[in-house]
């Protein structure tokens, strides 16, 4: 199964700031010229953890920014791409959109939604030589990540520290490469590759080789994943016990 015609070397990439709010703000993008157009939908939202202190409106805003912030710009450009019979749409999800983690209940929900949008959209636009890429970047060394760490729960921080933080340049280079090649999944590093294979489900593949790799490695990767999950559960239990001991000590002090 091939991807059809790939992008040529000349590629115009429009980065869309979803914090602008109204769908109309992206409408001019559909009118811009260029043989090959790639629309990159990104979210400026770096942090919202589901805790009792986070208001419902904040959780709704997170879904609006991450999910609807991907829907609106896609609608703005898709008609023109179909008419030209060429184009790439890149959605930026997260590894938290492949794996639910402690502290990311609201965030993961909004990122998982992007996957469903991308899979359905890819099936709709593939006959028009338009291809969708979903990127699942890990923790990336950005100002937003640094700000996130200031309020991140201990459990979340300890789990996140089990993998290394990537450089923004590394992540950006891989996403652009995968988009140009027409890959549906864009993962970074060995952990990212394993997660993408484990969660492939009914997602489209770029080639027969990719599909065979997923089939062959599924058993091994699932075994490794079970050890990871056991480790994460252990971290959560230890933190809960430490918190309980601290509360008892405070009451008896």
Polypeptide structure, described:
With 253 residues, this protein is an alpha/beta fold. It has a single domain (12-222), classed as Rossmann fold (3-Layer(aba) Sandwich), CATH 3.40.50. 53% of the residues lie in helices and 11% in strands. It is built from seven helices and five strands. The chain has helices spanning 56-84, 105-125, 143-149, 154-160, 168-181, 189-198, 208-252, and strands at residues 12-17, 37-42, 87-92, 130-136, 185-187. A five-stranded parallel β-sheet has the order 1-2-3-4-5, with helices on both faces. Helix 1 (56-84) links the parallel strand 2 and strand 3. Helix 1 runs parallel beside helix 2, helix 4 (154-160) packs antiparallel against helix 7 (208-252) and helix 6 packs across helix 7. Residues 1-9, 19-28, 30-36 and 43-53 have low confidence and may be disordered.
Annotation keywords:
globular, 3-dehydrosphinganine reductase activity, SDR_fam, 5 strands, NAD(P)-bd_dom_sf, disordered N terminus, oxidoreductase, alpha/beta, 5-stranded parallel beta sheet, 253 residues
Topology:
Elements: E1 12-17, E2 37-42, H1 56-84, E3 87-92, H2 105-125, E4 130-136, H3 143-149, H4 154-160, H5 168-181, E5 185-187, H6 189-198, H7 208-252
Parallel strand pairs: 1-2, 2-3, 3-4, 4-5
Helix pairs in contact: 1-2, 4-7, 6-7
Pfam family, one: adh_short
Keywords: Oxidoreductase
GO molecular function: 3-dehydrosphinganine reductase activity
CATH topology: Rossmann fold
Strand proportion: 5-15%
Distance between the termini: 67 Å
Shape: globular
Q: Profile the largest sheet.
A: 5 strands, parallel
What is the radius of gyration? Answer: 20 Å
The percentage helix is 40-55%
């Amino acid at each position: 199964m091939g991807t059809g015609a790939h992008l040529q070397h000349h590629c115009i990439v429009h980065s869309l700031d979803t914090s602008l709010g109204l769908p109309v703000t992206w409408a001019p993008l559909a009118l811009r010229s260029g043989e090959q157009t790639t629309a990159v939908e990104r979210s400026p939202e770096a942090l919202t953890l589901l805790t009792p202190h986070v208001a419902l409106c904040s959780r709704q805003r997170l879904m609006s920014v991450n999910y609807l912030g991907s829907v609106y710009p896609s609608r703005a450009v898709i008609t023109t791409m179909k008419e030209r019979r060429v184009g790439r749409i890149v959605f930026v999800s997260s590894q938290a959109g492949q794996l639910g983690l402690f502290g990311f209940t609201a965030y993961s929900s909004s990122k998982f939604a992007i996957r469903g949008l991308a899979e359905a959209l890819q099936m709709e636009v593939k006959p028009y030589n338009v291809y969708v890429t979903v990127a699942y970047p890990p923790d990336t060394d950005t100002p937003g990540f640094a700000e996130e760490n200031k309020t991140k729960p201990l459990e979340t921080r300890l789990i996140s520290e089990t993998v290394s933080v990537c450089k923004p340049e590394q992540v950006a280079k891989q996403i652009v490469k995968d988009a140009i090649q027409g890959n549906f999944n864009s993962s970074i590093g060995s952990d990212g590759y394993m997660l993408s294979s484990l969660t492939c489900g009914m997602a489209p593949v770029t080639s027969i080789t990719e599909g065979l790799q997923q089939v062959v490695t599924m058993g091994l990767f699932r075994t490794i994943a079970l050890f990871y999950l056991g480790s994460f559960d252990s971290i959560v239990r230890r933190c809960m016990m430490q918190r309980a001991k601290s509360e008892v000590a405070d009451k008896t002090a």
